[in-house]
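Quick check before the chapter quiz. The format below is the same one you will see on the exam, so make sure you can read both the input and the output lines.
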Amino acid sequence: MTAMEEREKAFEAKYHLDEEMAFKANVRRAKLLGLWAAAKLGLADEAALAYARSVVEADLADGHHGALISKLLGDLAVEGIPIDAETITHQMDRLAREAQAQVVAELVSGKQTLTA
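Here is the expected output.
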């Protein structure tokens, strides 16, 4: 293998690892957002985790987060909790940074592995 081929292969591997980390951070962000909303809804323990899973599924269904925001707005509105899309988006941005830090910390500590 030539040096150029080795370099190309290394770039491809890094790209795949970066994409996997981004995916894991996005899923973690959706879970954290689901737990945040679950607390607002008065859910705890298994009910909160189940709700967070449903939020992750809504986010995976729509890459632009429209389904996620609609779900949260609808669920909170049904319970009479006044939250707007801007508040949810702000919380989502805050939790994205937290999720990224968690994924990186788990990777560094060896609690999480990435595939090549």
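If your answer matched, good. The two ends are 19 Å apart (CA to CA).
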